[in-house]
Amino acid sequence: MSSNETPTQTNFVKQIINEHNSSGRFDQRVHTRFPPEPNGYLHIGHAKSICLNFGIAQEYGGLCNLRFDDTNPTKEDVEYVDSIKEDIRWLGFDWDEREYYASDYFETLYEYAVKLIRDGKAYVCELTGEQIREYRGTLTEAGRESPYRKRGVDENLALFDRMRRGEFPDGSHTLRAKIDMASPNLNMRDPVMYRILHAHHHRTGDAWCMYPMYDWAHGQSDSIEGITHSICTLEFEDHRPLYDWYIDQLGIHHPQQIEFARLNITYTVMSKRKLLQLVRDGIVDGWDDPRMPTISGLRRRGFTPASIRDFADRVGVAKKNSTVEVALLEHCVREDLNAHALRVMGVLDPLKVVLTNYPEGQVEEMEAVNNPEDEAAGTRTVPFSRELYIERDDFMEDPPRKFFRLAPGREVRLRYGYIIKCEDVVKDDAGNITELHCTYDPLTRSGMPDANRRVKGTLHWVSAQHAVDAEVRLYEQLFALENPDDVEEGKTWLDNINPDSLAVVQAKVEPSLADAAPGTHFQFERKGYFTVDSKYSAPGAPVFNRTVTLRDTWARISKQK
RNA sequence: UGGGGCGUAGCCAAGCGGUAAGGCAUCGGCCUUUGGAGCCGACAUGCGCAGGUUCGAAUCCUGCCGCCCCAGCCA
Prior knowledge:
Elements: H1 12-23, E1 31-34, H2 44-59, E2 63-68, H3 78-91, E3 99-101, H4 106-118, E4 122-125, H5 129-136, H6 153-165, E5 174-177, E6 192-196, E7 210-212, H7 214-224, E8 229-233, H8 240-250, E9 256-260, H9 272-280, H10 295-301, H11 305-315, H12 326-340, E10 342-344, E11 346-347, E12 350-355, E13 364-369, E14 379-384, E15 387-391, E16 411-414, E17 419-427, E18 433-441, E19 458-459, E20 462-463, E21 468-475, E22 502-509, E23 521-524, E24 528-532, E25 543-549, H13 553-560
Parallel strand pairs: 1-2, 2-3, 8-9, 10-23, 12-18, 16-19, 21-25
Antiparallel strand pairs: 4-5, 5-6, 6-7, 11-22, 12-15, 13-14, 15-20, 16-17, 17-18, 21-22, 23-24, 24-25
Helix pairs in contact: 2-11, 7-8, 11-12
The protein binds one RNA strand of 75 nucleotides through α5, β6, α7, α12 and β19.
């Protein structure tokens, strides 16, 4: 953990582990796992789980496996397993050689199923999907037993074998656990263990035409891997009795499942289904669109692994459903980037300034600090000349009281340059300001004694003749509402999309940025943190994504009016 | 009306019978060649509500109330 990350505090999961360690239940062993289904890209909610599982393993000197729960070939794909592996590594975690797949255990699972059948604890059922639902009963009424429940062991064994051999069509048979159709826990009402699916699996190919249900595969997979603590989300709490039942019937290693609340963040959605829809409908530019809460989106946006880990730590782990304000995530990146990002100057909305008393053709190289938070980052040189660009909103013809920037007759400091004074405002026929005529004070160059003169504000700038054109993408929240699922009658969450979530702007940036490498983080002084886009940026034609703005006191003051 | 969970500040979250940590946000002030950063300070007589036990309760007991999850051959 780097120094800018908050020390991890205690949580109920660690308390449980501590109790196990003092009782000796698992021989002081701590072995967790991160078990994604490869049916989509990882998002920041997964990052919370990854940090938890790998973090706990690290903290207790244990191990954390990566296991793909690939029990449904109709939804899964290698594209997803590749992206998942990349994202976990990028976050800074390593599963060594322990990369497993539930499909590795299909044969073992099959043998386990045969054992249950032999013990009279499972049977082949020929009810249709609809009938199974009817027989299940409701939340308040017990279910009815399937007419196939009383089949003999030999018949079940034979039928199950024929299921495996592919003698039956999809949906015609299932293997079900024989538990209790009257259980108040619906998961215990003879759950389906296997369904017939003549589908090609991304790993096992066509070896199987029936696949284990997640509930039948998950607990045993953990058991087989010797997992001690199976950490998962709240919705599986009701499934724990079933997992316990399977494992107890089988008499195999019994992990402890612990459930925690999944992460929600304001102004975004976290369900894979919705993220997939945003991608498929072309509402965003792929899974890694910088507005997406996916790991790949956050990466492209400019978030750092350390900032996401820090966020996961600060958010904590508990059982209460909650929604964390996106401001906390933003705080975490700012803190990391403040310490590490190189400072540069870039003007997003250029307004030309002519220094009328500055020698024509003269160019001075101004020394600029790369990162005031890190002396080792050194300095660089920025060209200064007679014609410059400043930010259009750093000038006001008729400024309000607390506006500390440029205005007619007012003086302002150009960062690392001179103090200048606005003498004239030049406008076009329509009355738009086209340029400013200013004078500079030659005794106030940065470093000179007169440079210490007190002026109201300091502006960033770029020399017009040296400026590099850059495309800058300014992002806002993808959704206009804190809770995108808060929809009125007849509308959907898609109606809550923020139409202004992306603004593309042509900026002027300092020459050092011309060939900036994709993924590099910068602070554009006074504006925010920006990252070179990994998809569209090219040498000589840089494209920047705005990760997050700087905290902006002036914006707050002016909004209060 | 069944079962499983959860209620501590605007948002997270510690606390585990001895008198409400911390972070984010917000609001003041200091400082500043980034209105950034940093620094200082404020921010729950109160822990969903009502009773009870106790010298003492956010913590224990009882009863309410509210919210989330479960009726896929998804995970």
